[in-house]
Amino acid sequence: MDGSTRAPPAAGDRRPRDLRADFFRGMALWFIFIDHIPGNWLGNLTLRNLALSDATEAFVLLAGYAAGIAYGAALDRDGWLFAGAQVVRRVGTLYVAHIVLFVMFTAQVGLSAATLDAAIYIDELHLDAFGQEPYRALLEALLLRFQPAFLNILPLYIVLLLQFALLLPLLRHPRLLLALAVVFYAVVRAFNLELPTWAGGGWFFNPLAWQLLFFIGCTLGYRAPDGARPPLAIRWHWLLGAAVALWLVFTFVLLFLGWHRPNLGLLAPRWFTGLLTDVDKTSLHPFRLLSILALTYLVAHAVPIGAAWLRSRMAAPFVLMGKQGLPVFCSGILFAFLGRLALEQSDRWTMQAAVNLAGLLSLVAVGALAAWYKERERAPRAATPQPVTPGRPA
């Protein structure tokens, strides 16, 4: 747990990039874009309508997985102090991105509301406080205590990474880390602990509870120098697979009868449909946690790490978006509001197709631009030739 450094691993010890994480993170980012557009028909096919979890759970789990890989390697190579500093630097990047997104989104919504005479945008997206007390609202936004709709995922991620920076050495003791995360999750849910907001109440995504899913992802991603398997890397067994599949079927039926077809739900026992009453997203209800873990178990065993289709042209756009998650996410928030404006003009299938196709292409373009810039930035620069002084040999 000290700040001592270690020698970097040999080139042959480097882990190959897990394209599964990139692909499914890209899918999650696309789903977030789709789900943020009211009236989007494609939203009927996203994860939130098929399981008791959605793109947010997938995003947080995969964020933890990526953090376990990247910062776990830094921990073993350079020690806690430097690895923790890297995490804090990432927090700074996310914070700046959040504030820039907040300003741009507020301006976008405010201009649209004024131009279209549609104050409903301000109310629905919880930006009315900004019009009433703009200076106080800006201060509270800087403190992450003012979070309009759709601007609550990055603050969640920021706090999760800050917790991770403090507990980073426990990656070497994953069972202890998970035990602490489970106990803290149980205490938070039992006593309704939450972080306060300016408007009263707690954060829409309570990081004190969501930390459990994030740390599960961290332990799945981390590999000790001895190559030991993480404690949650459960081998495939058909009985466990069948149990997981039955759980997903059970929750789908519950979701279908309780939310999608409540008229049919009236025919089911009241205790059954009543199970959905207390399934909250804010503090990550155990049903939601089990659902995303069940999906992860099936997908992780169905898609091997070296699956050839992950390098196909069909998968490439989502892999690209997953690799450039931050700019794609921020752009997706802004593009989604534009998509909403378009669908409010017409929701015919032609406009639906145009909005979703344009949105996907725009997200891919942002990912491609970000990847191009990073590649150019990392490329070795040619040495600038020195001018030759007259009368001296070159």
TrEMBL record:
A Pfam family the protein falls into: OpgC_C
Membrane spanning stretches: 23-43, 55-74, 95-122, 142-168, 175-191, 203-224, 236-259, 289-310, 326-343, 349-373
Keywords carried by this UniProt record: Membrane, Transmembrane, Transmembrane helix
Keyword Phosphoprotein: no
Listed PANTHER family: BLL4819 PROTEIN
Name this polypeptide is given: OpgC domain-containing protein
Organism expressing this protein natively: Plastoroseomonas hellenica
